[in-house]
Amino acid sequence: MTDTPANHVATFALSDALGPRSIGNGQQNADPIRYPEPGGLSWYEMLALLRAVISKRRVVGCDLVELCPIPGIVGPNFLCAKLIYKILTYQFAK
Predict the structure, then answer these.
(1) DSSP assignment string, 44-93
(2) What DSSP state is assigned to residue 1?
(3) pLDDT, tens digit, for every residue of 33-80?
(4) Which end of the chain lies in a sparser environment, N or C, as judged by fewer CB atoms within 10 Å?
(5) What is the pTM of this model?
(6) Helix (H, G, I), strand (E, B) or coil at 4
(7) Which residues, 6+ apart, have CB-to-CB distance to 81 below 8 Å?
(8) Cα–Cα distance between 53 and 51 in angstroms, integer?
């Protein structure tokens, strides 16, 4: 396993030290958005992390925050909607 932020988060999220999980995701971690977080997760890293956590742990909640819609720019809105769709798909495809 390479030494990336996604791998550190995955190791913690999948550890046996915690019980049920609640997924919280500030959209500064995703592209494209107004203020991206340097070193944040890529789309595919985020999906792999979500898939791993949801498949191996009981997820009891989820929130998606910090979307700031900009008139005429629909990319961030679409990204958030697609991310919610992916989370629901992973959760209920079990």
Answers:
(1) HHHHHHHHHHHHHS-EEEEEEE----BTTB-HHHHHHHHHHHHHHHHHHT
(2) -
(3) 455 666 777 888 889 888 888 888 888 888 887 788 889 989 888 988
(4) C
(5) 0.68
(6) coil
(7) none
(8) 6
Query: Would you say how long the chain is, in residues?
Result: 94
- By the 10 Å C-beta count (0-12 exposed, 13-18 middle, 19+ buried), 94 is classed as exposed
Cα(49)–Cα(21) distance, rounded to whole angstroms? 13
Q: Which amino acid is at 82?
A: K
Tell me the HSE value of 4 on the side-chain side, using a 13 A CA sphere. 14
The pLDDT of 10-23, averaged and rounded, is: 60
Q: Say if residue 38 is preceded by a cis peptide, omega within 30 of 0.
A: no
Bridge partners (DSSP) of residue 53 are none
Cα distances (Å, whole numbers) of residue 81 to 2, 8, 19, 93? 30, 26, 27, 18
